Amino acid sequence: MTDFFKDIPAIPYEGPNTENEFAFRHYDPTEMLNGKSLHDHLRFACAYWHSFAWPGGDPFGGQTFERPWFGDTMDLARMKADVAFEMFRILGVPFFCFHDADVRPEGVDYAENTARLDEITDYFGELMEASGMKLLWGTANLFSHRRFMAGAATNPDPDVFAFSAATVKSCMDATQKLGGENYVLWGGREGYETLLNTDMGRERAQAGAMLQMVVDYKHKIGFKGAILIEPKPQEPTKHQYDYDVATVYGFLKDFGLEGEVKVNIEQGHAILAGHSFEHELALARELGIFGSIDMNRNDYQSGWDTDQFPNNVPEMALAYYEILKAGGFTTGGTNFDAKLRRQSLDPEDLILAHVGGMDACAAGLKAAARMLQDGALEQARTDRYAGWDTPEAKGMMTSDLESITDRVLADGINPQPRSGRQERLENLVNRYL
């Protein structure tokens, strides 16, 4: 126990009419929805990096947060872990996620980094056993240190590639030891700043080789979880090779790994790629590579990845609609890859940000379940494509241009446009919110 969250009780569910800000209004973890509790549907996770490692800076200003665990000793790393697990207890979340650099101070070399990671992994194990917490996923930070300024797997220096590969191995070992349910790869600097000094073919080949090594090592150590890639189009680089779900799928197909790797989709990254969150989720579902999500939001006026806590229930309802259509989470979950605003200094702010995000997710999920159960949206979609259910239409899919042309002439086909009814469907969705 620590006193950082002093006098903040465990967050109860009190229903939509409560005036207690330290209570859930929509998230009752025991509430059953389609035979499964909200706890098991949503599989909430807290992100270690934003909640406990981020100092509150932005591109134009430095640290604003003062946390008692900020520092570069293992004693402070253990204090950070104690505070983190206290927050997990208060919120009642079942999972957490971390990068290696979030949980241990940087060492002088790879060996010291690994020794420190192993030490904190053992400490996590003790805290997890005592609390019942689980690890949703682990990952390696291959983007913050200056050695990664030109990428990790895609770096022009083979020594950086080697250091990165070794770091991934140590992080996979830690994830396996802690019973993690996934391992995530986010190529924060796997891209380029300018084509003038970039060999894209070589860099893609290096990234493919690294990913194959990760998959091979997964099987070697008997890791039962999923390997996930998290797409992002740019920022901090000008262009990243994991631009969006479609790009990742093409990459996986190129290297024969589409059956081995899935995606962890972030709302903010989808927006940066020019897509909606539900677009990325729907495409991943259709391609069979949906794995997990990072839940947050961007400020649509800023144009960069602001990683704010989610509060847009209509958007979240459409996202969870696609997740429910995919059958829900298996190894994945809802990770809050979100951070406080740099002016939100108090411990209470960190708790209440998660409370609001969890409530909004629960409200969105329940609206999505109502939409899916009612079936009106799916029926409208079915009706729009009903013409393709006829034998003649189905036959076109395996026909040829000449035969189709003969049919158009013989039957006098002269189609007229039909309404897509977009506004009616938008009104329909709003009925469930």
UniProtKB/TrEMBL annotation:
EC number: 5.3.1.5
Active site: 99, 102
Domain of life of the native organism: Bacteria
One GO molecular-function entry: xylose isomerase activity
Positions bound to Mg(2+) 2: 266, 269, 305, 307
Biological process (GO), any one: D-xylose metabolic process
Positions with a binding annotation for Mg(2+) 1: 230, 266, 294, 337
Cofactor(s) annotated in UniProt: Mg(2+)
Enzyme class, UniProt record, top EC level: isomerase
Principal localisation: cytoplasm
An example Gene Ontology CC term for this record: cytoplasm
Membership in a protein family: Belongs to the xylose isomerase family.
PANTHER family per record: PTHR48408, XYLOSE ISOMERASE (PTHR48408:SF1)
Protein name: Xylose isomerase
